[in-house]
C-alpha cells in the first residue's frame, strides 16, 4: 500500500460512517471495547467507574449528565506512589481517536498502548493488516494481553516493549508504515506535540499525533488561521457543528440551559498561544494564511 497524496486525501468522500459526537456512537464504542470487571497487574489497574460530574467533549465543554460505566486505567511508578489516571473510555477520548481510526489502513504503527482502545479499534478494521504498538510499561502490556488475547483481531496486534521515540521513530521504521498514531501524551501538551511533529513529520508523511484535530480547530475558530481541509476533517467538523447537546447526551441527560444548542456553541479553545498553534501547523506541513499578518 502506498501513502496517500494530499490531493487524494482532499478528494476522499466527505460522509463519515458514524457521527462521532453522538451519544449513540459513544455507546457503540463502549460496547465494542467491553466494560468487563476490575483487574490489577503490578503497578497498573483497570477499574470500572461510573461517569459523573462534568463530562466534556473533545472540542467543547459540555454540562450533560452521564452515568455510564466506563473502564479507567490507573498507574503508579512504585507501590508507594498513589494511583494516577492514565486513560479512560470517555466521549472525549472516543471523539479524539475517531479520525485517526478512520484514516488508518495497511500497517499501522502506534504508541502507547494504554487501555488498548486504539490498537483494538484499528485492528478490527478489514483494511488494516497489522498493528505494531510500542509501550514502555510492561504491566500495561501484561494487563492488555490478559484482557484481550481472545479477541479475534488480537492476532493482528504486535506489542513491543520500548520507547517509541528512541527505539523506533529515531531509528527509522524498518517495515512498512502506512499510518503512525502517536499517543504517548498524558495531557494535551502543545510543546511536546510541536517538538515531536517538528522532528518526525518531515520523515514520516502519515504521522498523526493525538490532539492534532484540536489544534486545527483552535487554529480555525479561535486564532483565525485559514487552510484547506481534506474531506474527512471537513466532514468531522461539520458533524460537530450539526450535533446538538440533546443528540450528544443520554435521554434526559443534559442541562436545560444547553437545550437544543449545537456543540460548537459550547466551544472553548484548548491552545491559547497563537504563535504556538502556528508553529504546530507549520511542523505538520499545513500551509495556512494568517489573517493577522494580512491586516498589518
Ligand atoms: C494515553 S495512553 C495511550 C492510550 C491508547 N491510545 C488507548 O487507546 O488506550 C499513553 C500510554 O503511552 C505510554 N507511553 C508513554 N511514553 C511512551 C513512549 N515514549 N513510548 C511508548 N509508550 C509510551 C504510557 O505508558 C501509556 O500507556
Description:
- The structure is a single chain.
- This protein is an alpha/beta fold and 296 residues long.
- The chain folds into two domains: 223 residues, Rossmann fold (3-Layer(aba) Sandwich), CATH 3.40.50; 62 residues, no CATH class.
- It has a five-stranded parallel β-sheet with strand order 7-6-5-8-9, sandwiched between helices.
- A hairpin with a 2-residue loop joins strand 1 and strand 2.
- Helix 8 runs parallel beside helix 11.
- The protein is globular and about 50 Å long.
- The structure holds S-adenosylmethionine.
Concise overview:
The chain has helices spanning 6-11, 23-33, 91-96, 98-103, 117-123, 138-148, 164-169, 190-200, 212-222, 231-242, 274-283, 291-295, and strands at residues 39-41, 44-50, 69-75, 84-88, 106-111, 128-135, 157-161, 179-182, 207-209, 225-226, 289-290. It is of the alpha/beta class. Strand 8 (179-182), helix 8 and strand 9 form a beta-alpha-beta unit.
List the helices and strands and how they pair.
Elements: H1 6-11, H2 23-33, E1 39-41, E2 44-50, E3 69-75, E4 84-88, H3 91-96, H4 98-103, E5 106-111, H5 117-123, E6 128-135, H6 138-148, E7 157-161, H7 164-169, E8 179-182, H8 190-200, E9 207-209, H9 212-222, E10 225-226, H10 231-242, H11 274-283, E11 289-290, H12 291-295
Parallel strand pairs: 5-6, 5-8, 6-7, 8-9
Antiparallel strand pairs: 1-2, 2-3, 3-4, 10-11
Helix pairs in contact: 8-11, 9-11
Bound molecules: S-adenosylmethionine.
